[in-house]
Amino acid sequence: MLTRFRSAAALAAVAFAVVASGCEGVGDLLEPSPSPGGASGDFSELVPFTVEVDGTALTASIEALPVAEEADAGYDRSLFPHWRDADGDGCDARDETLLAQDRSGNLSEADCDAGMTGEWVSMYDGETVTVSGDLDIDHFVPLKEAWGSGANAWRAADREAYANDLDQPWHLVAVTASSNRSKSDQDPAEWMPEVEEVWCAYVWAWVQVKTDWELSVDAAEAEALLGYAADC
Length: 232
Prior knowledge:
Elements: H1 7-21, H2 26-29, H3 55-63, H4 93-101, E1 117-121, E2 128-131, E3 135-139, H5 143-148, H6 156-163, E4 172-176, H7 177-183, H8 199-212, H9 219-229
Antiparallel strand pairs: 1-2, 3-4
C-alpha cells in the first residue's frame, strides 16, 4: 500500500529513502540553473491555496526527490478512475473542487451535479471565470506524469485515491479549459503557466505533490525545478 508523506518532517524521510535505496538525489545530479524568466512571490490573488514560498526550503525539497527516467509505457487514463463521490454527499471530486475554489461564496452542495455559476480565478492564465462549464479540473501533476514517475507500480486503489485527492487544495485546481489543454501532461521542463507571478507557487505545489505521493523526477524536470526555485 502506498504510504503518503506529509509535512516538513516527511522530507527527511524521503531523503533517507533515497540514500538507503542507492538512488541518486537531485542534489547529487544537478546544480541550480537560472530560470527562463523572473518569478515573483506576489501571487496571493491568483492561486487557490495559501503558501509563502521560501526558495531555500523549496530547493531542499527538490533535492530530496529521487531522480529516475520516466516509464510511460502502459499508461491509460482509465487506470486512474476519477471524479468519484467518496463521501456520498452527491458531490464528486470535480464538484468539490469547484465548491472549494469558488470565490463568490454563493455555492453549496445543492449546486453539485449541474452547471454552476460562481467566480473562479484560473491560476495558469489569470482569467476570471463565472461558468463552471468553462473550467477543467487539473491534476497538478498530470495523471500520465504520475504514472511515469512511479504510479505504474501502485495498486488500483492508490491510483483512484490520487485521481480524486481532495486532502490538499493544490492537488486539484480549477483552471480554464484552454490553459489546461495547453499544459496537457507536460512537466515544468516543458510547460509553465503564462502568468509568471505564479511560477514559485506552481513549482512549490508540483514538488509537494511529488513528495506527498513518493514520485520521482526526471533529470530535465529536476533541472527546470531548481532553476525556477533559484528565483523564489
